[in-house]
Amino acid sequence: xxxxxxxxxxxxxxxxxxxxGFGAGLSPFAPGTAGTVLGVFIxxxxxxxxxxxxxxxxxxxxxxxxxxxxxxSQDLGVHDHSGIVFDEIVGFLVAMIALPSxxxxxxxxxxxxxxxxxxKPWPIGWLDRHVEGGLGIMLDDxxxxxxxxxxxxxxxxxx
Length: 159
What we know:
mainly alpha
């Protein structure tokens, strides 16, 4: 569960810029949703990649995100600052693996990812409460993305 923000990021620090999604995380209303909106635009820029490259980008962003989120949390003195949205960006990208980039799939991916990220059903919620640091910040959104991906892939194959 994310803590209320107690410190502001330093936007002269590129790590904070990335963690806060180039400012999307400063949204006064639903910063995680604002971060996911940024994820849509990032998705549209990498969607044309061949699948192995797309998955490689998601993997690299996840690994980088563990460090980025850990460093920013440490700098701000807050475990999971609500403005850190790099995890939402990566989680959404995972949800969209191997799906068409048309508006219907984007909307479905957006909604399903946000539902899993907010509701945090087991084991997502358990991991969110028990895994610390950058890995903990990134892991619950990775699982939310994977849960959304599973349902989206099922729907894609059925329809």
